[in-house]
Design goal:
Blueprint (H helix, E strand, L loop, with lengths): L1 H19 L2 H14 L3 H8 L5 H12 L5 H12 L6 H16 L1 E8 L5 H11 L7 E8 L7 E5 L2 E5 L2 H16 L6
Parallel strand pairs: 1-2
Antiparallel strand pairs: 1-3, 3-4
Helix pairs in contact: 1-2, 1-6, 2-6, 4-5
Length: 186
């Protein structure tokens, strides 16, 4: 349900941005709001049932009037009124994905156990380009000790390469489990 709510609001905001010819401006504001709501104190304030909606709206208007267009401000105030402000980061993320598609940019996330050299990173990006429907890739690299070894590459929200040691071990465990429970194993 939350994903559907975020997509619906993001699509409406995107249509409005296109109509007003302000896709880039709205996208910058969406990134600003996504970063702002990453702060636990800000999220706590807006998600608190003890703080009345009117107080939240007053603070929003006072603090964000210079950073947000009238349309984006209206969305934030509407979300406060509808008690859906907790969805704002997800809405802004969905909006960012829509603007990326509009521009022909796709997000690539490379996850490894250790940091990559620039040459390794570029080799992976060159390989991933084959799977992308878009010309430009926005690449981010993450280090995750849970990977154990190898690399996992996500293109948008889809995993296109999973050559991690942890996934191989999980596959081997699953095969052994299936083998054993077919009545053939020991």
């Amino acid at each position: 349900m939350p994903g559907a709510v975020a997509k619906r609001y993001a699509a409406a905001l995107f249509e409005l941005a296109l109509e007003q010819g302000q896709v880039e401006e709205f996208d910058a504001q969406a990134q600003f709001l996504e970063d702002l709501f990453a702060d636990p104190q800000i999220r706590g304030f807006f998600n608190s049932p003890r703080i009345p909606a009117e107080r939240k709206k007053q603070v929003t208007k006072r603090q964000l009037a210079d950073q947000l267009s009238a349309s984006v401000m209206s969305l934030v105030l509407l979300l406060v009124d509808k008690r859906r402000i907790g969805f704002l980061p997800e809405i802004m993320h969905e909006f960012d994905e829509l603007t990326d598609k509009h521009r022909g940019v796709e997000e690539v996330t490379i996850v490894t156990a250790v940091p990559l050299t620039e040459a390794q990173r570029q080799a992976i990006v060159n390989e991933v380009r084959r799977f992308s429907a878009y010309g430009d890739l926005r690449v981010s690299a993450e280090v995750d000790s849970g990977v154990l070894g190898g690399v996992k590459v996500k293109l948008g929200t889809n995993i296109v390469i999973d050559g991690t040691l942890s996934s191989r071990l999980n596959e081997m465990r699953d095969r052994m489990y299936r083998y054993r429970h077919r009545g053939i194993g020991a």
